Each structure stands twice: as structure tokens, then as C-alpha cells.
Amino acid sequence: MIQRQIFIKKEVEPEFGKTPEERSTEELLNYGIVNVNKPKGPTSHQTSDFVKKILHVNKAGHSGTLDPGVTGVQPIAFGKATRIVQFLLTAPKEYVCVMHLHKPVEETKLRETIHLFEGKIRQLPPVKSAIKREERTREIYEFEVLEIEGQDILFRVLCQAGTYIRKLCHDLGKALEVGAHMAELRRTQAGPFREEHHLVTLNDLTDAMYYYTEEKNDKYLRYCLQPIENAIVHLPKCWIFDNTILSLTNGRDLAVPGISKLENFKKGEIVAVVTLKGELVAVGEAQMSAVAINTQNKGIAIKISKVFMQL
């Protein structure tokens, strides 16, 4: 979790609303997110549709499309929380991949070459990609070999959103002068959602919903369902006074006087606006830095792009 400096302008006792953890199961079903372990076979859209049918909700949406053959972390928001997935699209992603080398390579050369791919790289999207094929820059934050078995290489990569792992394998094989292709891929992290954080299968979700509807036992379902606020952990926060909430839900931007405290962020960053009890109100773009906001008493601080709280 990112640790950010917090600037306190004025602290008061919160009275409005409830903490995300205090929401009922019914509220979570209308305004929540689930960290699904996407199986091999269905598309991400089909997986979202499965979740919608299992939970009996009117809509569901996923963040970051995984190919049918790829497994792993697939956050799916539903009900009134569905729009939050767009703010997960740009978050870093982590994968574990099996890459098959077309010819043997010395381990020392392999590790040295992988090290060269850390940092900013240039990628040309695959022929079958959904976007225009123009070379673009992506950043590899971490890249490590986990296991070597003959010509099969198991590696972990933490990368910028939009990085093509299949293309990364191809380019790595080219750099090694032996050729390579992606044999198997699993996503282990999508922004704040990780494998070890309440990752559930579609069967888990089906069983949990059965216990909830047929036996009136919500213990298992509450393990599966997460509040929408878990999807904004990676965003800097801005806490507002209770008397400011109404104006934001009515479509106004956030002015400096309405801010109680805020985490450090730069002008232009996407910021989550929350109540003093931690409930998500809206998301918007910072019109000035946190340092500037902390020293001023007027002006628009956050230009709101999406309002989530309904009064």
C-alpha cells in the first residue's frame, strides 16, 4: 500500500453516514466489488456476466480485459459501483508467466537480458490487439525470474497498465536471439487487488449466494463482497466536511473550504473524495497540488468527473 503524507487543514468529529465496513450485505450487493479468480476459457465479459447472474444484480463491469486463456485477478464491480472500474484501468498490473524459449540459453545471459527490460520500453501492440498499432512506451517496474526448467522460464513482472506480456515474451526472445513465446499467463495483481486479498472463484461465489438466499447465512458472501472503497486504495484521498457532501452530489466541484484533510498529490492527478468516515463521494482531477491546497483558503481544488454517492 502506498504511504502518502497527510495535510490536516481542520479536523472535526464525523457525523454523516457510516464506515464502509458497517454496510449491510444488501448494501454491498447494490454497491460493491468482488475480486474474481478468472478461470481459463471464458472471456472477461463472460466472467462479468456470470457474476451478474450469480449475484442477481442488474449490471456488472470488469477492469482490464484478460484473454480467454489467461487466469487470475479480475476485479468486477456491480450495481451502482460499476463505474469505478475505469479508475482501475490505469493502475499497475502484476503477472506470472511461463515463457518458452525456442532454443536453450545460458542462465547468466537470460538474467542479464531480462534486467535490460526493466524501466521504460517501447512496444508495438500485437496484430490482434483492439487498439491502433502504433509503437508506445510502457514501464516495467519489476521483472524477475522465478524458476527455470529447460527452455521454460517462469517469471514475475510488475508493469504499467497496457503492457502486452505476449509481446514482452516475443521481444525478449528476439533480444536473446533464440525466439520465445508466451506459454501460460496468470494475473496476480490489478491495482489494489491481489491474489491473496479475498480472491474467490465463481463456484465460491455461487455457494456463498446459496447460503445467503437459502439458509439466511451471509458469512461467506460477506467474505466475497468488498466495498467500493477497496477499489480506490491506490488513489490519493481528500476528506471533506459533512456539510460539503450535498453540493458535490448535486454536481458541483470541490472548493478548498470544503476540505478537512488530504493526502499529498500533484496538480492533474486523479483524486478520490471521501467523507470523514471514509465513504467514497466522488472522483476528480486535482486543479492544484495538495501543498497549494493546504496553504490556501479559496479556489477549486478538485474538478469532479464522477459522483458515486447518492443522497
Commentary on this structure:
The chain is α+β, with helices and mostly antiparallel strands and 311 residues long. Among the domains are: 6-17 and 231-307, Archaeosine Trna-guanine Transglycosylase, Chain: A, domain 4, CATH 2.30.130; 93-190, Alpha-Beta Plaits (2-Layer Sandwich), CATH 3.30.70. The protein has eight helices and 18 strands. The strands form two sheets. Strands 2, 3, 4, 5, 6, 7, 8, 9, 10, 11 and 12 form an eleven-stranded mixed β-sheet that branches. A hairpin with an 8-residue loop joins strand 3 (60-62) and strand 4 (71-79). The longest helix is centred in the C-terminal third of the chain and has 13 residues, at 202-214. It is globular.
Throw out a few tags for this protein.
311 residues; alpha+beta; Alpha-Beta Plaits; eleven-stranded mixed β-sheet; seven-stranded mixed β-sheet; 18 strands
The CATH first-level class of the domain at 93-190 comes to Alpha Beta
What is the element string, with H for helices and E for strands? EHEHEEEHEEEHEEEHHEEHEEEEHE
**Low-pLDDT ranges:** none
Which structural class do you get from the secondary structure elements? alpha+beta
> How is the main sheet built?
11 strands, mixed
Q: What Rg do the Cα atoms give?
A: 22 Å
Which second-level CATH architecture of the domain at 93-190 applies?
2-Layer Sandwich
Strand fraction equals 25-35%
CATH topology of the domain at 93-190: Alpha-Beta Plaits
Average pLDDT number: 95
Q: What is the number of E strands?
A: 18
Ends apart, CA distance between termini: 30 Å
Number of helices: 8
State the share of residues found in helices, binned by percent.
10-25%
Shape: globular
